[in-house]
Design a protein that fits this description.
With 525 residues, the protein is an alpha+beta fold. The protein folds into four domains: 76 residues, RNA polymerase II/Efflux pump adaptor protein, barrel-sandwich hybrid domain (OB fold (Dihydrolipoamide Acetyltransferase, E2P)); 93 residues, RNA polymerase II/Efflux pump adaptor protein, barrel-sandwich hybrid domain (OB fold (Dihydrolipoamide Acetyltransferase, E2P), Beta Barrel); 69 residues, Irregular (Dihydrolipoamide Transferase); 215 residues, 2-Layer Sandwich (Chloramphenicol Acetyltransferase), CATH 3.30.559. Helix content is 23%, strand content 26%. The chain contains eleven helices and 25 strands. A six-stranded mixed sheet has the order 16-25-24-23-19-22. Strands 4-3-1-6 form a four-stranded antiparallel sheet, with no helix packed on it. Strands 8-15-13-10 form a four-stranded antiparallel sheet, with no helix packed on it. A hairpin with a 2-residue loop joins strand 20 and strand 21. Helix 9 packs across helix 10. About 10% of the residues have low confidence.
Length: 525
Amino acid sequence: MPRLSDTMEEGTVATWLKNVGDKIVEGDILAEIETDKATMEFESFHDGTLLHIGVQAGETAPVDVLLAIIGEEGEDISALLSGDTSTEEAPKEAASETETAAAAAPAAIPEGVEIINMPRLSDTMEEGTVASWLKQVGDTVEEGDILAEIETDKATMEFESFFNGVLLHIGTAVGETAPVDTLLAIIGPAGTDVAPILAAPPTAPQPTTPETPAAAPAVEATPTASTSVATPAVQAPATASTGRIMASPLAKRIAKEKGIDLGLVSGTGESGRIVKRDVEQFTPAAAAAQVGVFVPAGQEKQEEIPNSQMRKTIAKRLGASKFSAPHYYLSVEFDMDAAIAFRKQYNSIPDTKISFNDIVVKAVALSLKEHPQVNSQWFDDKMVLNHHVHVGVAVAVEDGLVVPVLKFANEMNLPQIGSQVRDFAGRARSKKLTPQEMDGSTFTVSNLGMFGIDEFTSIINQPNSAILSVGAIVQKPVVKEGEIVVGNTMKLTLACDHRTVDGATGAQFLQTLKGYIENPIRLVV
């Protein structure tokens, strides 16, 4: 488990991006690891095969415990898992590093002065950019205080102080980028002269730890006046001099996930810094009160409408139909050019007006006479083939849907169908239809074309065996006699109960219907 921040003591594996057995190439992202600061991607420094995962997703483990093993495919790792490993050279290397660091430490550093170098906050970090300083030269610093925000190659992370004292010098200003282990800051007793330290020749960069500070490169000191600002319990959002909102990386990530504007969040961290708890406890109303801004907030409002008897009946009957009858659907597209010309000519007769719906109903009625199986009804103990044709026409009303019935529709002419449908629709909306006028259908037509719906499916009105859904007439390019021309088409979908109407039967019905609608002269001869 890598140490991805100077204060990290344990990490939680958020997710593994590789699985045991996967091939690994140096630079591949192995996992996402949650630290005490942020969730970071962890890259592989090796090529090979992922042989073992030691910490599963969601588990937490201390730094330096077994996270994973990468090696040659098929390699025996039992000795590694049992703990029987040879680490003779590790102590030597550690001792060598300690000796080197001790030798590199400049002797001229006064007692109590600590040199802070650019930390390595990720395993792949080579340089860092100071996003903001949360302490200024002259400020008192305590162990655990956040000194700065540092942008790495992975994330922007908070950098804490490991020491107590006064911030004597800032070596890397806001916006500047510096390599790992170069001078970041100097902390020590108030009044300490840092000029000799800055004038000392730089040494090779060493890992910066509280025990072995690295030598600082020569940088001209630029002390500023000491400032001390009391931090209230709740402040308006903290903003750096650059205009950037001061927030911890974890707070930023949570805010992004929740879609929260950090500009509205009040910070309770040091110097008004926004931290995790501020985002988690954020509410728009509280933000408006604290920072004096108007936050639009809608008001939840509900209205309870008792189910009418009509709505209860619709729910009961359609629910029973949908969940008991095995529906299937057949869709076709008809050429409507001839029907359009026919209707125009028919309506030229004085005192005559028919609609496309009237043409469809008449065509359906004639087709049902030829296909009584589609005009049938299903009961628990029998199937009834109807040789009379009673077509139900679905009509939308305020409380739902009613289906008045055109009795013996096949024997009615087009004007009679049109007149009857208009009468039914008007009386349906004023709730003046009688139960007898809505009873006895053998088939139903539902037309949503007038609402611009191109295609849809309907639920069968039991005990009937089928229902036809009629879409809008659409003008579009079509192919006629090998040429692309502008045509008019209409889509119809037949819903069938498979208990009574087989697929071939339904298809044959639609072929007959197509013959009537695409050759509408047959409706009147």
